[in-house]
Amino acid sequence: MLEYLLRLGDNTLILSQRLSEWCGHGPVLEQDIALTNIALDLLGQTRMYLTYAGEIEGKGRSEDDLAYFRDAPQFLNCLLVERPNGDFGQTIVRQFFFDVFNFYQLKALRQSADQRLADIAEKALKEATYHLRFSSEWVVRLGDGTELSKQKMQVAVDTLWPFTGELTTPDALDIEMAEQGIAPDLLKIKDLWEKKVAEVLEEATLTMPSNAWMQSGGKQGKHSEHLGFLLAEMQHIQRTYPGQVW
Questions:
Q1: Cβ-Cβ contacts under 8 Å for 152 (sequence gap 6 or more)
Q2: b/e for 163-189, b at 16 or more Cβ within 10 A?
Q3: 154-157 long-range Cβ contacts below 8 angstroms, 24+ apart
Q4: What is the pLDDT averaged over residues 157-171?
Q5: pTM here?
Q6: Distance CA 68, CA 15 (A)
Q7: CATH number of the structural domain 2-240
Q8: Is the pLDDT of residue 142 over 90?
Q9: pLDDT at residue 132 is higher than 70
């Protein structure tokens, strides 16, 4: 259960940190604010997951301890969320791929045998619904936009596609959690994910990649070099001045 909660919390934490990098750099003010608000939503979800994880661990570690004082191999986020922002189109495609997964995952988690997790999912789903609508609309707008925006979006889809398989490919922990009724069956989530992604990409006049080869390892703590740089920035203040509070 602890490891599963860390996966959930690390996914939202790392994606939140990535989105926060757009603050003050968005293409227009409205989207700058929107990305920042989504980052804050994800951070709020992170706090619920990591607080619960710390309680289950029973070693007195707080949400801050789990966020700031673990090294890269101890993080269990999927590889997709640690990918660099790139241009606005790449950020949107990364967000869209994760949002579809997170939406269906949270819908299923509302029925979790663990009531605390079900309550977290119920609250987070309201935010995830907006996140999915936002990213879906931008995929369509840019994909079915100008020749240049379509080209950039297709490149983003093709580049990030190999990192999507990890989202819905169950490993031993996912299977164990599903058997206990705590987590959803990821193979069922996969069917829903593929259907929704196909629908939006078709509306956006973008081509859904056909290659089946996928990157993996993030859920087991095997990460790209990108996570190390991200954590160095995110954890710097707490590690330099440990125990400081606002």
A1: 87, 89, 90, 142
A2: bbbbbbebeebbeebbeeebbbbbeeb
A3: 154/206, 154/207, 155/89, 155/90, 156/86, 156/87, 156/89, 156/90, 156/92, 156/93, 156/94, 157/93, 157/201, 157/206, 157/207, 157/208, 157/209
A4: 97
A5: 0.95
A6: 15
A7: 1.20.1260.10
A8: yes
A9: yes
Q: Give residue-wise pLDDT tens across range 214-237.
A: 999 999 999 999 999 999 999 999
Q: Provide the H-helix boundaries in 83-224.
A: 88-109, 115-143, 147-160, 165-168, 172-179, 186-203
- 207: its two tokens: 């081509």
pLDDT in tens, 75-131: 999 999 999 999 999 999 999 999 999 999 999 999 999 999 999 999 999 999 999
Residue 213 carries which side chain, given as an amino acid letter?
A: W
- DSSP conformational letter for 27: S
Query: Is the CB of residue 202 less than 8 Å from the CB of residue 110?
Result: no
Question: What are 238's two structure tokens?
Answer: 């707490």
